Amino acid sequence: MNRDKKLFIKEKVQELRLELSDEKKDKKHTRKKMVLKKIIANMTMSNDMSSLFPDIIQCMDIPVLEIKKMCFLFLINYSKLKPNMALQALPILIKDLNDKNPLIRSLALRTMSYINIKEFTNSIIIPLYQLLSDSDPYVRKTAAICVAKLYCINKSIVEENNLINELKKKLHDTNSIVVSSSLLSLSQISEHSDSIKLDISTSYANKLANMLDGCAEWNQIYILEALINYIPQEENDAEILAEKITPRLQHSNTCIIFTTIKIILYLMNYMHNENTIKVLSRKLFSSLIILLSKDYEIEYITLKNVQIILQKIPNIFENNIDIFFCKYNDPLYIKLAKLEIITKIANKENIDSIISELKDYTAEIDKNFVKKSIQSVGILAIKFESITERCINILLALIETKIPYIIQESILVIKNIFRKYPNKYESIISIICSNLNNFNDPEAKAAVIWIIGQYSNMIENSHQLLNNFFSTFSDETLEVQFALLTASAKLYIQQSHDNQNFILSLLKKVIEDTGNPDLRDRAYMYWKLLLGDNYTAKKIIMENIPSITLPLQNFDQKTLDELCLNLGSLSNIYYKTPSQLIAGSKVKEIQSSKVLRNRFNLKKSLNQ
């Protein structure tokens, strides 16, 4: 490792050229290897080595695998920059395709498939066709993967030369590595084609499942991923296949576990035996526990995917809520992900323990975690009316701490509780109004202003409180400014004549002084409305309060299906499908079958 570090030093091209052309006795090419390593290291550091192209091509003829690897890597890197120079290497690569060493044959083939130059593409077709039937399985594996690479470069040339059919023949190869690589290649091709599909029969799906034990980890992943293309046609097909792959749920490889979970969730759509579904759900639970006990990065990915699984199997964690309770040494991103899940799986049976846990979290040091915990208290207060009063008491205790950011977040939550349960908890307004100092969060300011406007008839000095906010009107954000205008209109409707004149003067000042047209129009609209019929103004301004909705992540059935079919992928961390993130991505769907069950019924049976 230390020797390799010494290679990553900027070298002069001329000096490297001299070293490379040194004709001193070097039978084992030791010096050449060292110079090539320096060149590759400099290339990696983005130092331009392209002028060494002729010297590198001369080295390509040396029949040493390590030297060829470095030369071919150089060729791949600079072929776009100097395509004419790259063409000089083509005869050497074609010759290497027939080398007696299978590793050199594979290396030459892989190198040619990486280079997007017409002459390379045309020259690879016939050798690729032959190498798909090579005597060595490593060469056949490389050839299978190269078909997909070539398809990305030139679809028509692959289809015209019948390479897809040749690739499909490799699905029945005697070597499991070749089979898994062919499955990977066909899966990638089908992702970019409307006409080419990877069709897997029941007998072949079971054959693949039986093959898993003899495969290396990556090959197991390729095979499991391919099973997403299998469509069960008979009632027990999905159950039999799921039973065969369930041992992979206890594997040491995280990717294998994730992929197995994905396939089992997919197969559940075609199952009708409720006991089998429940048994499999318990096994999924055990495997998710394994993933949650791994490194933080894996735990985070698991937590984000658990959000999706919970909509598919809502009660999978109902008796094990404590596994999502935050540990003192959890990183912030883990804690926040756990809070999302806690609020989602809360029910009447576990709500008491959750509220007690959240109360403890509000005493933590991290501001973001405390804020999210307070928000979670508010969500549960809205979700379960039976614990709302308890949540209110927690929030009032937090306000009494006199810590500004805690007060602001608590008032934000209380505003939503007021909207959810009107005319029920307004007795605490006086406590809120006595804690309005040092507000700096625009959202919290807007919440307080909303409370003052909505309940001004219950607040003795409401006009004075509002005037205090108006004193810094020009410095406030638009959110706060709009909230002030609406609160002023509400105050006008509910207050005495003296205060009404005061409010009209405030609105008039905004109309005359503000430079924002939206703000000016809103102020003018309120001013005209308030000067008219009071009954009409009250009906428009006071009675249309939007209903509060829970900020919980729920997906429509189509999106949920696609998220489940992409379980463990990067896009799922953002709760987005690949088609939403990457233009041109193929939309994955649950395919129709006579044994496909209604997903609503599946969810219902899992809840029982």
How many helical stretches?
35
Mean pLDDT: 90
- Classify the helix fraction into a percent range: 55-70%
Low-confidence stretches: none
N- and C-termini, Cα separation: 57 Å
**Main sheet, how many strands, which sense, barrel?**
none
Shape: elongated
State the total count of DSSP E strands. Answer: 0
User: Which class of secondary structure composition applies to the elements?
Assistant: mainly alpha
* Radius of gyration, taken over Cα atoms and rounded to an integer in Å: 33 Å
Work out the strand percent: under 5%
Protein name: AP complex subunit beta
GO molecular function: clathrin binding
Function: Adaptins are components of the adaptor complexes which link clathrin to receptors in coated vesicles. Clathrin-associated protein complexes are believed to interact with the cytoplasmic tails of membrane proteins, leading to their selection and concentration.
GO biological process, one term: vesicle-mediated transport
